[in-house]
Amino acid sequence: MGVNEDFDAMLHDIGACGLYQIRQYTLVAFAIMFSAVSSIGFVFTAAIVPHRYNLIFFFALIFHLNERCLIGACGDESETSPFTPDWLSEAVPFKSNGQPESCLMFQSLNATICEFERNVQERCYSWVMDGPERTIQTEFSLMCPENEWKLALVGTLNNLGVLIGLPISGFISDRYGRKTALVIALVSAGIFGLLKTLATSYIFFVILEMMEPMFGGNIYGISFILALEMVTPKKRVVGNMVIVFAYAFGNALMGLIAWAARDWRVILWATNAPALLFVLYIWVLPESVRWLMSRGRLGDAKKVVEFAAKLNKADLDKESMKDWQNGQLDRVDTDATGKGDNLWSSLRQVTKSGVLLLRLALCSFCWASVTLVYYGLSLNSVSLGGTENKYLNFISTSLVEAPSYLITWQCMNRLGRRRTLCLTFVASGIACFVNPFVPDNAGAARLPLYLFGKFAITGAFDTVYVFTAEIFPTKLRNSLLGTCSMVGRIGSMLAPQTPLLVKNLPITRGKTTNNIMWFP
Questions:
Q1: Residue 187's pLDDT is what?
Q2: How high is the pLDDT of residue 314?
Q3: Which PANTHER family match (predicted)?
Q4: Residue 140 and residue 126 share a domain
Q5: Measured torsion, CA atoms of residues 167, 172, 174, 177, in degrees rounded to the nearest 10
């Protein structure tokens, strides 16, 4: 019997689902919720704000640089004035979709008279926002179309930081413990998140945006392992439900915070300041017993087991405990000694097997596809409605994940992993493919289609995670699952670029993300 089997047997004695597990899962759930908030926050901090420019004439620009100005005889342009006054079409060219141009205005004929030369256009210098929302777009004057790539780059760099940080956090987790890695990730993410509020330039902001997930981007993975190591295999389905539900509600919480704050700095303060409290996990969150056993720290493992038995009010036989502890001294498996297969040795073994190589290629492709669509639908959900509706849309697409997890697990048990994966991919693809053909005057039908697409791709994400973990040999499982996850980050890195693809691809040019959806 190995380390894992021994501890599974011990869990039956101390209680596999008692107060100890409830306490542990509650602590981990808070970490998972913060992971969700932290990983998707750039949707609102780097959002494109509906705007038109403030028509500041040359003379007004010289003498009133730091003030909002009137446009001669045209009217007031203060924050309380209408976003589209009657005279706007005389001063600003409009796009084919009926929206005013972002960075162009007609040339003024007189600084005191509302007259413009409609045959001559010129650049503007500042903007009037449609509503109170403030993002880095408004903070760093990234309004014009040539700056949209900078906003899309924020999400891509965030996911690049996760990709770089995965092996770092994995090393810390295996070398110094699950709890240590989790606390470092949580507190680091909170600190870098707060530092972003001090950013005075776009460059400063995106550097911090990438560094945050480099040190704190694997919170979900560490929490997932720490949580599932607390229960027996039979209870892991229930444990997994707690984890994925916490993540879904964390995403919804992000939408609520952004809705209430409407200011990127306030959002960052509200979501990251509480993360500093996670330093208390050093004292309140016990280390993984399985990790302690694998490292030969049997005295520490015994203390955690006794603490769990006390909380679960279980009678722990001292003789059995002593026999269990002594038995571990000569029963440490490959992972415990640190001599197990690393990533490179695993990949070398895969190249020697055509079957494993094909499985790795197919699973990696599935991971890249599912992450592209999953994150693409999450990010573009804010474009489905107006300024007010985008928060509800984001919250809805987050909460729809909860029933998806429940139904997907039933399908996996009844239909199998492969059929469930195919079914969810096809269902999501159909929903995404049909959406562009919904007439503009039938916009009410677009949101249900979008939600169904997110529902299906969430099921695909859950299935591909389980399917990948089960399809590879036990000895290579961890390394190859990590490889697929890293390849999947390519999809999540591309997802923030989908709004730019919509604007630049010939088939979608001139359309908005309201009637474009990306399918797997």
A1: 94
A2: 75
A3: SOLUTE CARRIER FAMILY 22 MEMBER
A4: no
A5: -150
What is the model's pLDDT at position 185? 92
Residue 519 identity (one-letter amino acid): F
Domain extent at residue 96: 51-130
Average pLDDT over the chain reads 76
Same-domain pairing of 389 and 508: yes
pLDDT of residue 518: 46
User: 102 and 57 share a domain?
Assistant: yes
> Any bridge partners for residue 116, and if so which?
108
By C-alpha distance, which of 255, 433, 476 is closest to 346?
A: 476
pLDDT at residue 277 tops 90: yes
pTM of the model: 0.79
CA distance to 427, 477, 483, per residue, from 490 (Å): 23, 21, 12
Considering the domain architecture, whether residues 75 and 26 belong to the same structural domain is answered as no
Q: Name the residue with tokens 């562009």.
A: 436
Contact 449, 434 (CB under 8 A): yes
In b/e form, how buried is each residue of 341-367, taking b as 16+ CB within 10 angstroms?
bebeebbebbeeeeebeebbeebbebb
Of 130, 147, 163, which residue constitutes the final position of a domain? 130
Distance CA 135, CA 273 (A): 19
Q: Which residues contact 419 (CB under 8 A, 6 or more apart)?
A: 411
CATH number of the domain enclosing 235 = 1.20.1250.20
Q: Based on the domain organization, do 102 and 29 belong to the same domain?
A: no
> Of 339, 354, 369, which closes a domain?
339
What is the chain's Cα-based Rg? Answer: 27
3-state helix, strand, coil in the chain (%, to 5): 70, 5, 25
Task: Give the separation between CA 271 and CA 39, rounded to whole angstroms.
Answer: 11
- Per residue in 401-436, pLDDT (tens digit) is 989 988 998 898 888 888 999 999 999 999 888 877
Q: Which helix (H) or strand (E) holds 380?
A: helix 354-380
pLDDT tens sequence across 150-167: 888 888 888 888 888 888
Query: Are residues 487 and 382 located together in one domain of the fold?
Result: yes
Question: Which residue in the block uniquely carries the two structure tokens 């502890």?
Answer: 325
pLDDT at 511: 57
For 131, counting Cβ atoms within 10 Å of its Cβ (0-12 exposed, 13-18 middle, 19+ buried), the class is middle
Whole-number percent of the chain with pLDDT over 90: 16
Which of 198-212, 220-234, 286-300, 438-452 is predicted most confidently? 198-212
Q: How far is CA 287 from CA 183, 189, 290, 303, in A?
A: 11, 21, 9, 10
Across residues 332-355, what is the average pLDDT? 59
| Total domains, the chain | 3
Under 8 Å between Cβ of 257 and 270? yes
Mean pLDDT value of segment 296-303: 81
